[in-house]
Each structure stands twice: as structure tokens, then as C-alpha cells.
Design a protein that fits this description.
mainly alpha, single chain, ABC transporter permease, membrane, transmembrane, about 75% helix, 10 helices, about 270 residues
Length: about 270
């Protein structure tokens, strides 16, 4: 297994993928930090937040410390897709599986690398977001809450979210195998799908007077990820329920992708 993992790391380092991902993480995290600072300023200052619902300083701190989660998890998912589909895009899949006939071991190696890269992306966003958040909260004369158990838990669960999204991407790549198709479907589902479903279910809930339909988006991957990293959960759903839901998506995607890869012709 160590040989397989080293081989997968070499594949990552020998392409432009790693530095393109790094540039994306740095850029999107910087944008997220700036946006969350602006939002936090409006929420903390009575003169600027007219008509804005009251938000606890603890939630503002958590939001700042986990800045970059949305696009960061998206990049982790894309990496998971690419680490598998690159084999078919560059036509190296046959050589890879001939060198290691037990396909489950190959997928296991890719899975470990995908998880580690997901955690690395989370580490980068945290290193950028936490000092920025501390500085902003100090400038607003607000408690930083960095010693708060719920805030620290949210930061840790944020790292878990990145790892799970990377696993989800790997499963999606194994399921579809087409790099372009998998990336497009993944991006559309994450960027647009959640919003479209939420609007559609909201209209149905209003028309049929079924309020429970408004809760369905919370159990989709993006909704579960948000709930998992919110202090105490959100929308009446505990954080651990969101964590289990997101973990379930990652496990199901990985298992289905593994089973399909073991049976499918690689040519």
C-alpha cells in the first residue's frame, strides 16, 4: 500500500494540478474572508445592520474562522474527481491496474491521498482565516471565542467536511469516469443544484402547505456540511446529524465507485 500511495503522490506532484489548486484555495479563501468580515461588521454594528437579523458574536466568529469552506470543499471535491479520472483522461489506467491488479488497493491509495489533500486544503484555509478573524474581532472589541468549545469543534468539523468532500469527488469520478462530465456534474450539483432544489421545494411547501419540504435541502450534501460546522447545529438539526448525513454521502459514493471500478472494463 505504501508503494501505491507514493505513486499517487508522484502523480499529483508531477502535474500542474497541485499549484493550480493552491492558487484557487488562496484566492477563494481571501474573497471569503473579505466577505465574512464585511458581513460581520454589518451584524456587529447597530448603525449598519438595520433590517439585518441579530446574529450571535459566537456565530460570527465561527463563520470567520471557517471562511473558505464553500469553495474550499468544492476544490476538494474537484481534486477527488481528478485524481481518479486523470487515469482515463491521460490513458494511464491500463498501466496502473496492470501494475496493481487488485483494483481495490489502487482505489484505497487514491482515497488516502484524496483525504490528505482535503485536510491540507482545510489547513490552508484555517491558517488564513483564523488570524484574519482574530484581528477583525479584536478591531471590533468583541470576544474572539477561540477558546470556546463549540467554536473549536466547528473548526475541527470543518476539516472533516473537506476530507469527506474529497472522498465524495473520488466516488463521483469512479462512477462516471469521464473527467469533463464528472467535474461538470459535481460543480452544477454543488453550485446550482442546492439552490434550485431549495427554491423548488419552497414553492411546493407553500402550495401544498407541507412545511417539512423546507427541511429537505438541509439533508443534501451542501446543507449537511453547513449544519455540521455550525455551533450547535442549525435549523433545529444537531451538528452530529449533519456530520452523519455528509459522511453517509461520502461513504456511499466511495463504495459504489469502488464496486463499479472492480467490475468495469478499464479499456
Amino acid at each position: 500500500m505504501n508503494r501505491i500511495i507514493r505513486s499517487e503522490w508522484l502523480k499529483v506532484r508531477s502535474t500542474n494540478l497541485w499549484w493550480l489548486m493552491l492558487i484557487g484555495v488562496l484566492a477563494f479563501t481571501a474573497i471569503a474572508i473579505a466577505f465574512n468580515m464585511l458581513t460581520g461588521y454589518v451584524e456587529l454594528n447597530p448603525g449598519a445592520n438595520q433590517g439585518v437579523p441579530d446574529v450571535s458574536p459566537e456565530s460570527i466568529a465561527t463563520n470567520l474562522y471557517t471562511s473558505g469552506q464553500y469553495f474550499g470543499t468544492l476544490l476538494a471535491m474537484v481534486f477527488g474527481i481528478l485524481i481518479f479520472t486523470n487515469e482515463f483522461f491521460h490513458q494511464t489506467a491500463t498501466a496502473t491496474f496492470l501494475a496493481t491488479p487488485k483494483r481495490t488497493r489502487v482505489i484505497g491509495g487514491k482515497l488516502i491521498v484524496a483525504i490528505v489533500v482535503g485536510v491540507i486544503i482545510a489547513l490552508i484555509t484555517t491558517v488564513l482565516a483564523v488570524p484574519s478573524g482574530l484581528g477583525f474581532l479584536a478591531s471590533q472589541h468583541v470576544d474572539t471565542f477561540l477558546g470556546n468549545g463549540d467554536v473549536l469543534k466547528s473548526i475541527g468539523l470543518n476539516w472533516l467536511a473537506f476530507a469527506i468532500w474529497a472522498v465524495f469527488g473520488l466516488g463521483l469520478g469512479a462512477l462516471l469516469r469521464s473527467q469533463i462530465l464528472a467535474v461538470i456534474i459535481g460543480l452544477v450539483a454543488m453550485l446550482i443544484g442546492q439552490t434550485v432544489i431549495q427554491i423548488g421545494l419552497g414553492l411546493m411547501a407553500h402550495y401544498f402547505h407541507a412545511d417539512w419540504l423546507n427541511k429537505v435541502p438541509d439533508w443534501l450534501p451542501s446543507g449537511a456540511s453547513t449544519i455540521m460546522t455550525s455551533p450547535g447545529g442549525a435549523d433545529g438539526i444537531a451538528w452530529w446529524a449533519g456530520a452523519l448525513a455528509l459522511l453517509g454521502y461520502g461513504v456511499v459514493a466511495a463504495v459504489i465507485g469502488t464496486l463499479i471500478t472492480r467490475r468495469r472494463d478499464i479499456s
